User: Fold these one by one.
Assistant:
Number 1:
Amino acid sequence: MSERPVNPKPESLDDIIGRRAVVLADQIQKAAAWAKSEMDLQIEVAGALKEFAREAKIKLDGHHNITIATGHRDELGRPDSVYSNVIVEYKDPGTLSGNRDGANNKKLIEQIRSRFYAMRREENRPMNSMFGVGTDGKYFVFVRFRDEKWTDEEPLEVNRHSTERFLWALYNLGQRENRTNRNTCTEISVRTAQSRKKACVRYMKRSLEQTTRRRRFFSANGRFYLEKCAGMTSRIFRTS
């Protein structure tokens, strides 16, 4: 009696992002070695992200070199790439350093901050719903606005771990979906494991509150929160 063939286990989202992070990090590093400009780097990364979106079965809401008013003397700004709530700025390879206080790093951080203000003003996006990324192919600079203050961090070398964070930010905040739901749930995305645990618990508790207004809200949006928390919790308890 022949054995029944075993179907291969479907690849999980964690697996896809982990595998694509290795590939993308390698692509970014190689591009940084030959790129002559930030545009070369942008084209290489944008193409690789399309492949990631295909494998992850998501629709990245990507727009490149769009023009937005900065609000400063009627000047116009042109973010390199905007994936819904993820803003990506590219710099010439070798421009950035591992020192957050380096001149080029500080200039990049201020540029990303200005994008946040412009997007809030022009598109009414909450400041804490956005995620800023800057890279020269050798370093990542991540910028967020949390608890009424900026939380920019030390630059991270481009590797599988920093690239994985970039991909999770795109998965959580860069998809083409209902912005109201995504912005409300931003607090559940791209945080440390401990913070994500607390965020999930807090949001789940809200669904049990008995006010009429909140019951109506969670009745309409409960599935969204449950799906976000369910997927996140599996990652939290495996990595905590």
Number 2:
Amino acid sequence: MPDVPPYNDMLWVTLRVLISLGGSASIGELDQAVIAAAGWTEDQQQVLHDDGPKTELEYRLAWARSYLKLMGLATNSARGVWSVTDQGRATTEEQIPALRAEVVTEVRRNKRPRAESAASVRPLDDMAPITTTSPAGSLVGDDPDEDSGWKDSLLEGWQACAARCTVERMEYRKIADHTVSAIGLGGMPMSVSGRGDRQQSIDTIHAALTAGMTLIDTADAYCLDGSEFGHNEELIAEALHHWGGSAEEVLVATKGGHTRTEDGSWELNGRPDYLREACEASLRRLGVESIGLYQFHRPDPDVPIEESVGALGELLDAGKIRMAGVSNFNSAQIRSAHTVLGGRLASVQNQYSPKYRSSKTELDVCAELGVAFLPWSPLGGIAKASELGTAHNAFAEVAEEHGVSPQQVALAWELAAADVVVPIPGASRPESAVASAAASELLLTAEQIARLDAT
């Protein structure tokens, strides 16, 4: 059998290639890029295509792929699991949560820049081998069938790989003096009509956090109807409680001022006394002593803006909330809120997307005032997000140029509009949350931005 690189070296070069490919390679593309980066001979490559029993090389590559896929860094499987069943070591779905918790944080929270080609990856002989201190001595030992310590050693090897990678971290932005990920998670789809089950929603939140998101947007009114008011806040609190990372690093932004009836209708209440009560209820549901960002959900035509926003100022002064924001405000109302709060307005959350651009005026006001602008429905809304590329051809064209989705292009386009923009795309599946997070890595050219602006 042709000589093959040590398994830990293969893990290193495979991870390095995946990072360079931007985390979106198919299995076939990954194979070819690893082969090119490792400088394998034709004889070594041929064993990947043999119809006979797995060779040591194929076995090692399969395991390298399985963990890349397990972490969601390669596609081609609904669950991201590559099973090596004929080796008796299939990765089962029961293993996924524990393995993710130990491994994925080391890699997924880092930004993975896209390279022009696999040629930009340093060759294997340019990299010092990774060693482990596990009892097995290497990631699987000299004998592929040796089972002693394989899991601990493999995890240790992955952590060493992650530590060796020189990659940029996810882009971050500011809401007032608080640093957050450039893209946040919108919680609404997990609590309204069409939502998945509770575990799927919790998995989605955990996937977003693991992908590096540190902002979650919610509201007390995100629910089916008045009988479950506060559903989304309680869901997020539960997900944070069970997450393996630090919840203190996550900014939860909630809203009050919308109410829901028993038949599911949406109504408004901007009275100061109601907003104070709503804030207290949100504090209880979120299980915190102070809400990171509390936003007035929508102006109430029966209550002067100054009175509603004034209630936010009182909540700030009382320490009930750390930052105050508003939502669905026009430019004049934003300036008024900024004045009422004495310059303490932290955020404005308005609808903004390739389909809905009329809030560009409000975005510009926020940029002028240094107030964070959080586009809601940044992909065009729950029902329309999947049609973004079809409805807006320029976004599909730019997506093809970068090898990404039109939805990721839309988020990158919004980020390019101003440094104060922090999109909050909704998600109800882990895959969607992770894809949105990856959009912060996408850098559009000036020509591409102009093309998208013009459509």
